[in-house]
Amino acid sequence: MKTPLSDRLAAAVFVLSIVVLSVVYGAVASVRGWFPAPQIELAHDTIVDLALFWRNDLGLAPTRHLVPAAENDPDRGYRPAPGAEPTPGFVLVTTLGDDQTNSSHLVQMFDDGGREVHRWPVRYESFDDEMSPRNVVLHGMEVFEDGSLAVTFDVGNAIARIDACGEPMWVVNGNYHHSIARDGEGALVTWRDEAIVRLNEETGEELSVLDIRRDVIPAAENEQRGYLELRTVSLEEVGDRTVYLEDPLHPNDAEALRAEMAVAFPMFAPGDILFSLREINLIAVADPATGRLKWWHHGPWIKQHDPDFQPDGTITVYDNGTSTGRSLIRRIDPADGRLSVVFEGGAEEPFYSWRRGKHQVLPGGNLLLTEAERGRVLEVDPRGRLVWERHLPWDADRNLVVTEARHVPETFFGGDLPDCRTQDAGPEGGGD
Description:
Layout: H1 5-32, H2 37-57, E1 66-68, E2 78-80, E3 90-96, E4 105-111, E5 116-122, E6 137-143, E7 149-154, E8 158-162, E9 168-173, E10 176-182, E11 187-192, E12 195-200, E13 206-211, H3 212-223, H4 227-234, E14 235-238, E15 241-244, E16 251-256, E17 273-277, E18 282-286, E19 293-298, E20 305-309, E21 315-319, E22 328-332, E23 339-344, E24 359-361, E25 367-371, E26 376-380, E27 386-391, E28 398-400, E29 405-408
């Protein structure tokens, strides 16, 4: 018996209604984070992650630590520019461990002639037994006059201080990440989750905490200052509730204004914290005791990193320029908001890292730069001309990611370089 047309139409309308409702619910669920959107997103991210990095996770190749090289040249390494004068001193560079040091990560130190003079094995497995060393990236690094280092990791679970041989002096577990900076008063400033923390540099003991969501945003709201800049791009209104989106801020750098530099910044006080929130293109200075914002600026940088106080009363910023194909080093004067460009790459000296990145203004005005997503460290002079560059090659067309490079003066270690009698500190004169 043939089904009446009206019954078939009703069935079709019912099915179509279910499809429309499913699509509408799916769209709303993806925005609101309702079931099953988070589960689907997690499954998708897991599949993509496995597809990209399964060789890394099986120990076949460190694909989580590799980036496309700026040029296809298997012999690339350390290259000085003819006639250029490197800034005297030493440069420390973070990279991946090797068979020689039997470590998951490594920090190498080179003299101003490009020769390796010391190396620190960084054995993440000695800090944390939860995360695989293959899946964490050495990121933050701070160096001490006694030859020890403090280190943090991307997607890791520890901050640690190690001696010149790589042996732990202290370890604190937790989601410490991105930058580490000494405050000149015996403390390290770094990030734990979305909080800026100060740790005793001798013991790792936590001294103070400035939480962005708990302390800084409410303080800005109470003063009617700066709250909208944070709120409108980082929060979502759901009825009468305020819901934070996933990683809406992405904090990636923090440093304290040192006492010896405070005279150049009369609007701030010694110990005030300069920090960077990547996702909202914001850098700001806050009172660590109250969370009150004393100054802030959105852009023109895009997904920036590494704002630094400078002795002339300005702040320099690593502008990644994500999706533009060009990264810049910018300068801003917090007194009047005046902006300028310190360095930009060009046809002769391309410069671009869509994420990560560090810069350091050196004595004499040269710049030390990391092109993190191309695995390159370079020094340029005040006119933007190359002084030297160092690629960290893995194979013909890939480099090892480099997250940090740090220059220290010739006298930093008091005349005696870090030494470790229990390991080979690397071949004499071996710059590459």
